[in-house]
Design a protein that fits this description.
It comes from Leucobacter edaphi. By secondary structure, the protein is α+β, with helices and mostly antiparallel strands. It is built from 9 helices and 20 strands. It has 2 domains: 243 residues, 3-Layer(aba) Sandwich (Rossmann fold); 114 residues, Nucleic acid-binding proteins (OB fold (Dihydrolipoamide Acetyltransferase, E2P)).
Length: 374
């Protein structure tokens, strides 16, 4: 008998009469501001989601990502601006009339109800006919790979299975949009990776517009069509995972998304000089100049854009290996220059260095983000 995970991931298409909509509804925030007393936590946020798109709100604690989600849900009234779903202004519409599905960190399943009854609950509240309820529950449990557990109770399920029950319950009502607030944060790392992929597969299969809140950058990059990186109640950058990683438009985004080395350099027109290398500079999001030629700056350089080669020569590009670690297909090596500056390098695991080895350091000609250096 296949495992629940095999059942879910091996299904290429939804069953006939699929429970989900063929396409989701557009979701839009227009100048949404939210204040709690004298404290403003959202500052005029604008965000557009196309039908069927999955957008992650990513950022550190306190950046406003969960507040933005709660404003979309109607759990928090906005102080200014508008929320639109499917082109309709729902800013003043109560949460139970917004036609959305929600899954939170705490799944809040009814402990006295079976899996099937938990999934069916929302349909009963909407007075859907009994026969249709049974059909839709069966279809949704098949989609999430839990048909064989329909008569189990929540305490008889693993955390990952409970998460999928909560997801099925949110989707069975055929909502216009799905809102996920860190739904995987209570699970261990291996289960999280498996379930995030399953959520993405189900979301794609059903074509439902989804807002996914997380502070886990790997999670956001893995599942999103686009990612909105939030900082201080504003969207610092919105783009595809590739855009955010390869072309961060601010030091905050470069530092928060992925790993970056902070390397001292000097501006030279539209490029920066870094230890003998000339690297192109990514222009700031606001279009302002990153500085003037000759200004000292910090360049944010990805570990995989650093190249090492064995060398006994000295000079500004010469360094000594401090540590190296095997990470399966890659190694991460830390080197130190004569002036004490350190650099993390990511390279193929077939090349191994030992602590104390002298190496030459070079940089790939990839665009970098820079910040003024005091």
């Amino acid at each position: 008998m296949p495992t629940p995970e095999q059942t879910t991931t091996s299904r290429a298409h939804a069953p006939s009469g699929t429970t989900g909509p063929s396409s989701g509804s557009a979701v839009r925030l227009e100048g949404v501001t939210k204040s709690f007393g004298a404290t403003t936590v959202l500052h005029g946020v604008d965000l557009d989601l196309s039908p069927g798109e999955l957008v992650c709100l990513l950022g550190p604690s306190g950046c406003g990502k969960t507040t933005a989600l709660r404003c979309i849900a109607g759990l928090e009234p906005v102080s200014a601006g508008r929320v639109l779903i499917g082109g309709s202004d729902v800013t003043e519409v109560p949460v139970n009339r917004r036609d959305i599905g929600m899954v939170f960190q705490q799944y809040s399943l009814f402990p006295h109800m079976t899996v099937a009854r938990n999934v069916e609950f929302g349909l009963g509240m909407r007075r859907v006919a009994r026969a249709e309820r049974a059909t839709r529950v069966g279809e949704m449990l098949e989609i999430v790979g839990l048909s064989h557990l329909a008569e189990r109770f929540p305490h008889e399920l693993s955390g990952g299975q409970q998460q999928r029950v909560a997801l099925a319950r949110a989707l069975v009502t055929r909502p216009r949009a799905l809102l996920l607030d860190e739904p995987l944060s209570a699970l261990d790392a291996k289960v999280r990776v498996r379930l995030r992929d399953q959520i993405r597969a189900i979301q794609t299969e059903l074509g439902i517009t989804t807002v996914f809140v997380t502070h886990d950058q790997e999670e956001a990059l893995a599942v999103s069509d686009r990612v909105a990186v939030m900082e201080g109640g504003r969207i610092a950058q919105l783009g595809t995972p590739e855009d955010l990683y390869r072309r961060p438009v601010s030091p905050f985004v470069a530092d928060f998304v992925g790993l970056s080395n902070r390397v001292a350099g000097v501006l030279d027109g539209a490029s920066v000089r870094v230890r003998g290398a000339q690297l192109p500079v990514i222009q700031p999001a606001d279009g302002a100049s990153p500085g003037r030629t000759g200004d000292p700056v910090t360049a944010f350089i990805r570990p995989e854009h650093v190249r090492l080669s064995a060398s006994a020569a000295g000079g500004d590009s010469s360094a000594v290996v401090l540590t190296t670690g095997f990470l399966g297909p890659i190694r991460r090596t830390i080197v130190q220059f004569a002036d004490g500056a350190e650099l993390a390098v990511q390279h193929g695991s077939e090349t191994a260095y030992e602590a104390g080895d002298r190496v030459d350091v070079a940089f790939a000609s990839e665009p970098v983000t820079v910040a003024p250096r005091a």
